[in-house]
Amino acid sequence: MPTAIDLFCGAGGLSQGLHDAGFEILWGIDHEEKTKPTYEANHACEMTVGDIREEEPPDLGLDEGELDLVAGGPPCPTFSLVGRSKINSLEGQDNQSDERHLLYEEFLRFVDHYQPRAFLMENVEGMLSAENEDGKPVVDTIKEQIRGERPVADMDLDLNYSVRVQLLDAANYGVPQHRKRLFFIGNRIGSENPDMEQWETHRPPQTEEEKKIKYSRDPSKRSEEDQHTLDGFVDDREDEEFPAFRKNRRSKESWNTVADGILDLPPVSPSGETPPTRADEYELGPVSEYQYWARDRDEGQDWEEQELLNHECRGHNMRDLTLYKLLGEGTSYIIGDIPEEHQPYRTDIFPDKLKKQNPKEPATTIVAHLYKDGHMFIHPNEARSITVREAARLQSFKDTFEFPVSRTHAFKQVGNAVPPLLAQAIGTAIRSEIFNQPIREEEPQKAD
To answer: What is the layout of strands, in order, in the sheet containing 180-187?
Structure first.
């Protein structure tokens, strides 16, 4: 089994996806103390809380070059448009001099230390348009540093990796959410770095019918003959179990939508409480293919026996609840479309400050700002913002992934995460194309 570590690991979305792709995660690190209970509740490896700039790479019990993958997503707020505007508004600061955008150099320091066969680095789309103080594109600078053609700050690093940089939308890999992120995939063993467009499993809908919820039969009812592996040629089949990552699929499913993702989850006010609060039990079994996968039931377990975790939303005042009710299918999805006298915000600045999620489309990008308010993530059918579990579903965390922290911290952790399904797709491609390992389609055992 290939080995990996996860830098800037957060709650562990990247770790989970790599685990599901067949990697053994040996260690993780993050600066946020509240991520530790979440990470350790869902992963069977040690996680360190600390400033990576002050941490030395730990002894993993491996010789130099034996680690297979260094992965991580350095938090770089100055590369996002929102981050740039906030930093530039601070007296005496600008986004080019802000130290946080150089955290990727710490990622490269760990790559240099372990000399893994491959690496995977994730960042925001805004990095593509970012420039350094000399006016040079940041992405070009990083690629030169990775190839060993340019020094990394004042560090004496020995890097000589080939690298491919791609902007990926999570919706194209089965995640019921549009989320564009930049990925650097590299290796030092002479392999071709995967072109992730060739590993896409989903596409935009071509008809109105394809926007409807994709009903599926219970995967536990599938016969042995339904199961296939990638050890030989596998033709595309309609009853293929989700997810099935392989290169150059001849046919793709239409995007998973908000309805596919969350509409099997019960209302959070089962007795009509106002404001809505939480629910602890499922009321229906899963309906869509994605929901069957997300429930992640043990073999032989009925859905009635499964505990529903983190299905809790924030409280709302009556004005917000009434405004939420105004929005929806057949009227409008953003508050900017309703009459001016009902606007709670200036529409020239916040045209989409209140937004109801469209059940026939993938969700808009789940953000960490959810921990402050949920106005941009209003439930498609209920007058409330989404719950932690619904946000996690839209990020492709399975229902068995627990967030044993306060609701506020849980929302932040979900919003900051790499979608596990997207990470699984990339991890599968790395194993197949860089490491030349046969990939089986059946899902690995879940982490302890």
So the answer is: 46-49, 24-30, 3-7, 69-72, 118-124, 180-187, 162-169
